[in-house]
Amino acid sequence: MPIEKWSDQILVVELQDDPAFTDDVTAAIDETASKTSMDVVLDFTGVTYLNSSNIAKLLRLRKQLLGNKRRLVLCTINTNVWGLFMVTGLDKVFEFADTVAIGLTAVQLAEGG
Fold first, then answer.
1. Which of 20, 35, 41, 76 has the most CB atoms around its CB within 10 Å?
2. Which fold has domain 3-111?
3. 14-60, pLDDT tens digit by residue?
């Protein structure tokens, strides 16, 4: 299953290219709207490209989480997708981790365990 509750405070989402990307990020937005104490770790292993709609969804999720003082960590970004983040300046907007394990660790350490 692409969306997994890692714990009561952490949601891990394994993303794929569209149309699954849009569906999964929308599901994460819906899940975190009702649970305001949840951080999100996005696994980009299956993502080879992003379009403007995908970026808009990511920004919406980020805004919602930041409004609740929660974190969004993007992990395992491939070279093509990373290039898009850099060209658009979004590499300075989002928080990144090399692997899901590192992303989960960063979120858990920030929570104090």
1. 41
2. Transcription Regulator spoIIAA (3.30.750)
3. 999 999 999 999 999 999 998 888 999 999 999 999 999 999 999 99
Distance CA 105, CA 113 (A): 9
Under 8 Å between Cβ of 96 and 72: no
Q: In 32-70, which positions are buried (b, 16+ CB within 10 angstroms) versus exposed (e)? A: beeeeebbbbbbbeebeebeeebeebbeebbebbeeeeb
Domain ranges (residues) in the chain:
3-111
Instruction: Kindly state the percentage of the chain with pLDDT values over 90.
Output: 83
CB distance 62 to 86 below 8 Å:
no
Tokens found for residue 3: 């969306």
Handedness of CA 88, 92, 95, 99 (dihedral sign): positive
